[in-house]
């Protein structure tokens, strides 16, 4: 059974969004006035009709636009197209432009990617971006050896920390996984996913076409469970592959699509 949907969903105590006014709070109600990473507004040019410059919003033969256009990569004020979730706030924009789909460079980076997807389960995609720095601080830079030393008292303290996702099940799962991953180097993590990279992968054209699971994710979930990891169901494993660039994680037309090892940046 997929642990993402069987008793390990979001806890009532989860901080689902950053309070309005706090740094990183996403302005999801105003997609046309999204924030750049520097805090300035990045207007989404959704009404352009110059179809030779906007091939992903081209008119249909009858002169109308497809309803799917609302779910394609959006054109931002800096002239770059991005996945629709990117311009929802400065934290999401930085996550999209710098980290999402980028292969980790060290063991802590691989473990961070998996842990973030565990915390992400059941929440909006950009929510975890707002809490990433708080989680890094609280979870000792995602160093598995350091996290493995955390005690029950440490977990209790984290549940009082507003900078993290305050969910005991998820925090305890990350601590458990750190103990199971002690000693793994970046080459070991890379070996786990080496045969899961598709020879050729096309990015999804719209958000509606994005899959929540994949055969590759199913295989990875089974491997991680055999190693003793928990809270690594098929959905979490699939998103881990997207986050680490093994599978395409950006939409067709996004400026980060097609630049990484898995068809994403």
Give an overview of the whole structure.
The protein is mainly α. Helix content is 34%, strand content 4%. It has nine helices and four strands; from the N terminus they run ββββααααααααα. A two-stranded antiparallel sheet has the order 1-2. Strands 3-4 form a two-stranded antiparallel ribbon. A hairpin with a 5-residue loop joins β3 (74-75) and β4. It is globular and about 65 Å long.
Q: Brief overview, please?
A:
With 265 residues, the chain is mainly α. It contains 9 helices and 4 strands. The strands form 2 sheets. A two-stranded antiparallel sheet has the order 1-2. Strands 3-4 form a two-stranded antiparallel sheet.
List keywords for this structure.
two-stranded antiparallel ribbon, mainly alpha, disordered C terminus, 265 residues, 9 helices
- Main beta-sheet annotation: 2 strands, antiparallel
Mean pLDDT: 80
Which value, in Å, is the CA radius of gyration? 19 Å
| Sheet with most strands: strand arrangement | 1-2
Unreliable stretches (pLDDT < 50, length at least 5) are 5-37, 42-57, 261-265
* Order of helical and strand elements: EEEEHHHHHHHHH
Assign an overall shape. Answer: globular
Report helical residue fraction: 25-40%
> How big a fraction of the residues is strand?
under 5%
Strands, total number: 4
Distance between the termini: 31 Å
Structural class: mainly alpha
Number of helices, where a helix is a run of at least 4 consecutive DSSP H or I residues = 9
Question: What layout of secondary structure does this protein have?
Answer:
Elements: E1 33-35, E2 41-43, E3 74-75, E4 81-82, H1 90-99, H2 107-120, H3 127-138, H4 144-147, H5 152-158, H6 168-181, H7 186-193, H8 215-226, H9 234-243
Antiparallel strand pairs: 1-2, 3-4
Helix pairs in contact: 2-3, 2-6, 2-7, 2-9, 8-9
């Amino acid at each position: 059974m997929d642990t993402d949907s069987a008793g390990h969903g979001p806890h009532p105590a989860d901080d689902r969004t950053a309070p309005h006014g706090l740094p990183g709070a996403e302005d999801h109600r105003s997609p046309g006035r999204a924030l750049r990473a520097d805090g300035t507004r990045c207007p989404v040019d959704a009404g352009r009709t110059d179809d030779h410059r906007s091939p992903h919003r081209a008119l249909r033969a009858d002169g109308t636009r497809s309803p799917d256009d609302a779910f394609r990569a959006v054109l931002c004020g800096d002239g770059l197209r991005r996945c629709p979730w990117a311009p929802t706030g400065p934290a999401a924009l930085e996550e999209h432009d710098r980290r999402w789909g980028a292969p980790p460079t060290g063991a802590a980076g691989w473990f961070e990617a998996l842990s973030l997807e565990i915390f992400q389960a059941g929440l909006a995609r950009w929510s975890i971006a707002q809490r990433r720095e708080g989680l890094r601080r609280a979870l000792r830079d995602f160093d598995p050896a350091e996290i493995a030393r955390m005690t029950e008292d440490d977990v209790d303290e984290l549940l009082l920390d507003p900078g993290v996702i305050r969910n005991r099940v998820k925090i305890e799962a990350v601590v458990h996984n750190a103990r199971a991953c002690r000693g793994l180097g970046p080459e070991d993590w890379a070996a786990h996913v080496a045969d899961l990279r598709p020879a050729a992968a096309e990015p999804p054209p719209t958000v509606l076409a994005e899959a929540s699971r994949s055969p590759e994710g199913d295989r990875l979930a089974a491997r991680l469970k055999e190693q003793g990891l928990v809270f690594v169901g098929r959905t979490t494993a699939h998103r881990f592959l997207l986050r680490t660039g093994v599978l395409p994680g950006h939409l067709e037309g996004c400026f980060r699509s097609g630049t990484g090892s898995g068809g994403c940046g």
